[in-house]
TrEMBL record:
Protein name: histidine kinase
Chain ranges passing through the membrane: none
Keyword Kinase: yes
PROSITE patterns: HIS_KIN, PAS
Family matches, as NCBIfam families: sensory_box
Organism: Sulfurospirillum deleyianum (strain ATCC 51133 / DSM 6946 / 5175)
GO MF term (any one): phosphorelay sensor kinase activity
PANTHER family, A to Z: OSMOSENSING HISTIDINE PROTEIN KINASE SLN1, TWO-COMPONENT HISTIDINE PROTEIN KINASE
GO cellular component: plasma membrane
Length: 506
């Protein structure tokens, strides 16, 4: 591949000694380099080399001034061992010849004929210096290319060169790429706006850089940090070709993805641990309340057993009823937790039967009448008169309704409305209350989560697993569910929908 990177090196020269007095030579020397400095004061040399970043010292020494210049040149050589020096020695009787030779200058010239051609030697020295820089830069950029993924195209985007790394990553052979347009590795997921912005940039002669995904021969993704460099003709500034240098980001992104997954799992475990702790507090509270009722009422009855007839019959029935309700509440909570564990591990089996949803709803309402009476809520059930049969798990269907209805009773203000709507395509059950509603409608379905807008009284009314249980059962039984604000009551509206496979007129 033709070397594209090299640009002429800027050379800074310092002229010293008696040559610095030759105005004609100095003026001609200025035309040969980018920056030229002159000094006839030896003590200025070290400072000028440091401040001006001198690349080459060019000058003449004679027997009359060698003692002044040589110490300064020795100091420069110690500080800048790679600096170039070209010195004309104007006498064969130099007392410090050994010291001058120890400077290891690039060239020593002492013949008068050579001194007359000083400008020629200066030019040759500049060419040698710039060529050395060129070789160093070429080696540097060649190393850069060897460790990069490189392709080159003409101004139309047709591939004219690819290196071995490009072939290794993409899986293509060189003959499959050369002459083809670069869009053959374009990924379908990359928006066209990316390429429009890229072409707009490089056709204006500016370098484009960005992260982009390409498509390998086997269809896999190849993410790369990409830099596209336009190269122009020096005089006309016409763009000749484009060079693309890429660095493969795919392994890095894969490691980052794995690292993020590990972090996410650790975060989930941390949240789960916190949620479990919160659940234990809530659940023990839920168990403690009915347990206290059972213990207190049972103790009361046991204490009065010798004279049980003295306890009014209505009170005895009430106490037994409360014991039964408390035990049933505890059993429901335990059953929900056991079923939840099975659901989360896909071990819950469904018993699908054909049943009447209206009767199932009425049965659930009847079982919640006591809870509604306790919370002073009124349950209103309405249906459109259509009759239908539903193929599903009736017991789990009732569990879904029970969890939704109990929430509506607990969190409503005065009324809970239930609607059954039947069409030939679906059955829809709507349960809505007139409570304060739920702010975080998505988060509330997650395990142990509750609405952040819930009041403290509301937070004490459940274990935090009910709606998560509903979510898993709905997904398992293919029910659609939507939680939204109730427009008519101002509270929460829960809609449960099931596509019908069998429909029958009543």
């Amino acid at each position: 591949m033709e070397h594209c990177f090299y640009q002429s090196c800027k050379v800074c020269i310092l002229i010293i000694g008696e040559m610095a007095y030759d105005t004609t030579f100095v003026n001609e020397a200025r035309t040969l380099c980018d920056t030229l400095h002159v000094t006839v004061l030896p003590h200025e040399i070290p400072q000028m080399v440091r401040e001006k970043r001198v690349d080459l010292i060019f000058g003449s020494l004679s027997a009359s001034n060698e003692a002044l210049y040589v110490p300064m040149l020795q100091e420069v050589k110690r500080a800048f061992p790679l600096i170039k020096m070209l010195l004309f020695l104007q006498s064969e009787e130099l007392r410090l010849l050994d010291d001058i030779l120890a400077l290891r200058c690039d060239r020593y010239l002492s013949m008068k004929k050579e001194r007359l051609n000083a400008l020629f030697h200066l030019k040759a020295s500049i060419e040698t210096f710039t060529h050395d820089i060129y070789l160093a830069e070429r080696h540097y950029f060649q190393t850069l290319l060897d460790f990069s993924i490189v392709s080159q195209t003409d101004v139309e985007g047709n591939i004219t060169y690819v290196n071995d790394n490009f072939l290794k990553v993409t899986g293509y052979k060189a003959e499959e790429l050369l002459g083809r347009n670069h869009r053959m590795i374009k990924h379908a997921n990359t928006p066209s706006s990316v390429f429009e912005e890229m072409w707009q940039t490089i056709t204006q002669g500016r370098v484009w850089r960005g992260q982009i995904v390409n498509r390998n021969k086997d269809g896999s993704d190849f993410w790369a940090e990409t830099m596209i460099i336009p190269f122009k003709e020096k005089e006309s500034q016409k763009i000749l070709q484009y060079l693309s240098i890429r660095h493969d980001l795919t392994p890095f992104l894969e490691k980052e993805r794995l690292s993020n997954e590990i972090k996410q799992k650790a975060l989930e475990q941390e949240h789960l641990s916190e949620a479990k702790d919160a659940f234990l507090v809530l659940f023990t509270h839920e168990l403690k309340t009915p347990l206290n009722a059972i213990l207190n009422f049972a103790q009361y009855l046991h204490k009065h057993m010798p004279n049980i007839d003295e306890v009014p019959r209505e009170k005895r029935l009430y106490l037994l009823e409360q014991i039964y309700k408390s035990a049933s509440s505890m059993l429901d909570n335990v059953t929900n937790i056991l079923d939840l564990g099975k659901l989360r591990h896909d071990k819950l089996h469904y018993n699908l039967t054909l049943f009447h949803p209206k009767e199932a709803i009425l049965d659930v309402i009847e079982k919640h009448n006591a809870l509604a009476l306790e919370h002073k809520k009124r349950i209103v059930f309405k249906h459109d008169g259509q009759d239908a049969y539903l193929t599903s798990d009736e017991y789990r269907f009732k569990q879904i309704l029970s969890n939704i209805l109990s929430n509506a009773i607990k969190y409503g203000t005065s009324i809970v409305e239930i609607f059954l709507l039947v069409t030939k395509e679906s059955i829809e059950i709507v349960i809505q209350d007139d409570g304060k509603g739920i702010k975080d409608k998505k988060e509330v379905f997650e395990l142990y989560n509750k609405s952040s807008a819930a009041q403290s009284s509301r937070e004490k009314k459940g274990t935090g697993i009910g709606l998560h249980f509903v979510k898993l059962l709905c997904e398992g039984l293919n029910f659609e569910y939507v939680l939204e604000d109730s427009l008519s009551l101002g509270g929460t509206r829960f809609t449960l929908r099931k596509r019908l496979k069998e429909w029958k007129n009543g």
